[in-house]
Amino acid sequence: QVHIVESGGGLVQPGGSLRLSCVVSGPRTMFIVNNFRWSRQAPGNQREWVGTIFYNEFTMYADSVKGRFNISRDNVRNTVYLQMNNLKRDDTAVYYCGLGDDWGQGTPVTVSS
Regarding beta strands 36-41 and 93-99, do their DSSP bridges make them parallel or antiparallel, or are they unpaired? Predict the structure, then answer.
């Protein structure tokens, strides 16, 4: 069974940056052939897709974060990253990392002055 743990969330001012990490337990051979997603859920809102990184490092992003967020992966450390730049108040949410139907517990991000 896959175990996913996100970290790196916190309080940041508008315009600031954060990097979230997602560590995925399991065999490295499993990690390198899979695609991973980031999603987020703001208070009172439904969870929304943020972006995906594919096994070949191709990435896709939601329009709301395109040009500001970047997803990368480290196949040696079984880790996926979400670099968030130029953060806006609307980016405030709990951020989740997922593989298939498995998701972590999330890490909260608050953008506020």
Answer: antiparallel
